[in-house]
Fold this protein.
Amino acid sequence: MIALEQSLKFMIDIIFYSYNIKFCIYDTIMSTNHQLSYFFNPKSIAVIGASETPGKVGYNVLKNIITSGFTGKIFAINPKADELKNILDYPAYKSVLDVPEEIDIAIFVIPAKLVNPIAEECGKKNVKGLVVISAGFKEVGGEGITREQELVSIARKYNMRVIGPNCLGFVGINYNGSFAANTPKEGGIAMVSQSGAMLTGMMDYSMEQSFGFSCNISLGNKADLDEVDFIEYLAEDDDTKVILCYLESIDKGEKFLKVVPFAARKKPIIILKAGISEAGARAASSHTGALAGADIAYELSFKKSGVIRAKTISDLFDYGEVFLYQPIPKDNSFAIITNAGGPGIVATDAFEKEGLKFTSFSESILHLLRENLPKEAAIFNPVDIIGDASPQRYAFTINTIFGLNHSDTGKTNSKKEVTTQGALIIMSPQAQTHPNEVVKLIHAISSEKLQDKPILCSLIGGVSIHEATKYLNDHHIPCYPFPERAAQSLKALVDYSNFLKTKQIESREIPRFKVDKDKVTSIFANARDDGRTVLLSYETSEVFERYGIRSPKTRLAKTPREAMKYQEEIGKVVMKIVSPQIIHKTDVGGIILDINTPGEAFEAYIQIVDNTKKFGPQIAKVYGVEIQEMIDFRKEKKVNELIIGMSRDPQFGPLLMVGSGGIYANFLKDVSFALSYNFTEADAKEMLQKTKIFSLLQGVRGESASDIDSILEVLLRLSQLVNDFPEIVELDINPLLSFIKGYSAVDIKITISR
Amino acid sequence: MIALEQSLKFMIDIIFYSYNIKFCIYDTIMSTNHQLSYFFNPKSIAVIGASETPGKVGYNVLKNIITSGFTGKIFAINPKADELKNILDYPAYKSVLDVPEEIDIAIFVIPAKLVNPIAEECGKKNVKGLVVISAGFKEVGGEGITREQELVSIARKYNMRVIGPNCLGFVGINYNGSFAANTPKEGGIAMVSQSGAMLTGMMDYSMEQSFGFSCNISLGNKADLDEVDFIEYLAEDDDTKVILCYLESIDKGEKFLKVVPFAARKKPIIILKAGISEAGARAASSHTGALAGADIAYELSFKKSGVIRAKTISDLFDYGEVFLYQPIPKDNSFAIITNAGGPGIVATDAFEKEGLKFTSFSESILHLLRENLPKEAAIFNPVDIIGDASPQRYAFTINTIFGLNHSDTGKTNSKKEVTTQGALIIMSPQAQTHPNEVVKLIHAISSEKLQDKPILCSLIGGVSIHEATKYLNDHHIPCYPFPERAAQSLKALVDYSNFLKTKQIESREIPRFKVDKDKVTSIFANARDDGRTVLLSYETSEVFERYGIRSPKTRLAKTPREAMKYQEEIGKVVMKIVSPQIIHKTDVGGIILDINTPGEAFEAYIQIVDNTKKFGPQIAKVYGVEIQEMIDFRKEKKVNELIIGMSRDPQFGPLLMVGSGGIYANFLKDVSFALSYNFTEADAKEMLQKTKIFSLLQGVRGESASDIDSILEVLLRLSQLVNDFPEIVELDINPLLSFIKGYSAVDIKITISR
């Protein structure tokens, strides 16, 4: 591996600047969190559309608020208030404006058409937050879309925040403001869901699990408040230990990327992103667009933000539970203890699959195991304490591998040892196994001596291990019927541990190169004025030149004299007709190669223009003749073809790509991606290292290494370009020829928006 | 896509022969099955080491036989028989030889050292089968290995079959001959396990599931009977509907490949192969060996045999249950019905991931749905019948999508429609949902009208759907807490359905080319005589020539006159010194290019031999000078570099490889594999189509197609070669240059065993 570390440090034209986004983030948190806290801790709630008819949503919501033990004031709003006086023993009013006291939160369970006028009244009444359960907004299209826009306008006008519309409601510790059939148990998991039905299902499911919720929030149409707002709030919420999200879309990608990485350092955030198969509305006329999978931007943004991604609903809860109850391991260094070979092998396979690492025990630990376990036991990790293992043997082994039996025997290695940072303990019920005793000892050791090391169990069986399983659940040690899910959960802990070790975003350095932005602006403006969205090649060449990316020099000559001037400036050139209407330049005699003198350039200009007049279409608008540097790449000792590109993700912005280029790029599919947001040199390195061609660039079979630093620089400069110009829709460099020293971006395609 | 179909039909030198392995297979089945049936239906069992002390294995086994209701005779064998007379009320004998009646099965629970002498007695007593629970054999190494070999010899001598040693025992419908704590429920699943602990765990787990077992077999060390023997038996066993295996190794790969494909046509076979991470003892000095993953041979052999592979223990049971209770679908064409958007999206993602296809409903079905479902419903597949779906709406929708409400509306399409072949029905408990009613209707429709279409359910929730879930389990409709596992199970059914549609092995044509086997035998013998295992290049060239694979013609000249002769025969040649001691031929002047006349060849011979005498090592043994055809590949319009090779898997034999070749083959890793066992033209096509380079061979961007048929022929000829010569350990062709017409195997490496 070559010394990548030297890298860009020597480039003279870079200005590093500290990426100081933190202050503005904190500002957002203060204001949003202040407003959101009304939903979590309201002093008073009005139910708009409260009903005394069981089965009606307006009844269910009011009933849930009451029975969930809300201690603040409750007002029932109903047009028939004059007759009813009270609904379920709470005072009824015709309008919020009639309520004599302050209202913090209004929950809407009335037909969509009536929502906005009453929202307006809520604004006048100085209500802080609206929970709009009512459906009939954006999701029905047509006038529903206008209605939703109006609702947001009203909220903005009166500085109110809105959950929904078209949602299940809000369930917090202080009250259940939803129409769900049950109020879930209280606990440390915050659940945020874009699907009401999924939320009901999961709440129902959770009733029998060992965990409970700090809140269950149904986002509905996300007209105002979305997942990012709640993630931001919940990261600071003392009742919440873990944040789980079920999402079908993330509409505001940049907001997500700004907020979530900070929140994720405070609380683990686990997201199940559904609707993968329907995503991918990304433009795909470029190589980059075609090669990027529909899901890649979500994958990258989750990774960048420290989000743990659940692939299934089962994962979502497994990860929620393990993060709720177990500590984050310091290192990827674990042990398996088993009393049965088969399950141990299954667990080892699962560890391997998840990339979990086995601690290599110290000599002193091995010595203790060897002396005290039966000779049939396997003392190397995974440790098989065999079928007749007693509870005491389990306890001895756990204590030993964590170094708790480890009086200094003088046998410790001189090198600093990586110690065991957590364990998966497997028990298969056999004749001599006493499951209930074993789990009690596991819990005792774990809670007394291993507070910073995750312990997970897999008890394999049914009737024989019911009681033991229940004991583990009650004592917050995650227990799985088979070892595979345990390995996945442990991997989630490791991923989060690794994220916490990464550099804080605010201390990362995003290089800013000196560039000529104004010139590029004018090139784009010219093309647009001309009705073109795909740049011509002398234009792409100049854009790259202004951003410090090397490509064959190209100039547009509009007269034979200019052709002479540019040939003189560049050297050996090829000359080509420039006309958007002429696609096949060779066919009309529009290309002349190997021009070495100004005289030849003069004559070639006249010849090319003559040829195209003679052989080209009558309507052809001729811009002039392109004078392009001819580089003889055969002189280079080593040439690798790369593809580098950008396509714009509708949610997460520019998506950079690098990989194996050339005419077969689309078949080789050897490419890797990164978000251009906060793109650092380390990101550039990481994405290049993920490609197969990276090995070739490093040099194989005695070859010299290619100029990898220069490729990283291209990626960083490209990132700056596409961030500076949101009008660049797509960009492909294919091939970029990489040499032992330097490179050349030979063929460039830039597409801009109209 | 080019017409691959023409293919080899035109080759003149092929003799197709019908691969008539079926008869010999049937022979095996008859004899083995006859012997194995004693284990399943013994008339009498002797427990060797029976004990009346609770807690002892000899007690547990006897007790299990008795309490599991065995109706045959039971004999307790114990050295203290004279004192005891009876053990647990059954007659005790000192030796099997003392038993006055016939013994079918003897179960051993005595120390290892005592096993073989008593096995000998069993032989004399004409016992049919031994179940050796005792440990202390191969698994302990040393004398244990000898002991196990002896045990097998004894069994062979007396024509007895052996289960174990070192196992849990045998549990059948007629008796529980194991020391497991519980006797599992009776049912249609046969479970075969290489791990006793895994078997106990799984039996225990199953006690609460909806399925039961026809047998639970613990294979132990597989000294005699192994998984293949039992698969063969169980395929014919009337009590068994599905065969589940937990395996850590398959030691007899060829036996597996011979037997399992036949068995799999009779019963679904599901295997969890553990120990993936420890496999891969394959030789890896070749490209092919290095590129083949450790698990690839298992993966290929399972696919070839129609085995459904479970990736986790949870899969194993999920698949077992779905195959036990649901029919095999005719096509990959399914529907999802859901009353909630979120779970529907999750299920759609899972379908997409598993490659399950959505039926495109006919106009008449869509019409019915449109007319009868609420306007908010999604009538296209997946069908969302929305939150207020009543049981009747579920029933209506199921009937409709299966065409059961489908009176001819005159709107059916003219083209033959693919109809729905199965469904996943999702229910999320909402206010108007009546789960218990819904599941009753689902079961009624499924059992009355959809006997040939699999129906799976996912009820999302906990307390609200307990009763409904239990109802489904009791009525054999698989029900999953979340949709992802349902999709996996449905995929397993589709895989099996596809396997059943493949051509029967016995009707497949394995091409046999006319070759010169004797000549190749003598080439290998010469090399071996010479102490070489890697062939020299004139040897590989001749081996290939004799097997009809084109490579540059190469001859070994031992005199200047021979050089003349060969040059005249071949044409333009390169001449190279041949000496195993000279590695860098150019350095010693050992290579001369561009030889066009016999005269030049004569002189070149003398020059090369002179040069190597002067500049080469003193010890160099000179075989002569190689005369090799020089082909100018630059004349070819299209050249693709392929790699083709073979490495020998220790279990499953020759493993063929094809993919992108050249010096970067190991970095591109664009290769695919196939077992050479029963290798047909269709297999060759399939493996080539799996590579990325296949697109390039087909021709992209207006290029001509390469001669794909000729590549397929190389693969088939190579397969014949490596099957004819088990001494070929590894073989690489890299590159094989593929042209528009023809190919050339430029660089060949063949390694043979000593």
Summary: Chain B touches chain A through 73 residues (CB under 8 Å). Confidence is low (pLDDT under 50) at residues 1-30, 278-284, 408-414 of chain B. The longest strand of chain B covers residues 728-738. The CA atoms of residues 202 and 313 of chain B lie 9 Å apart.
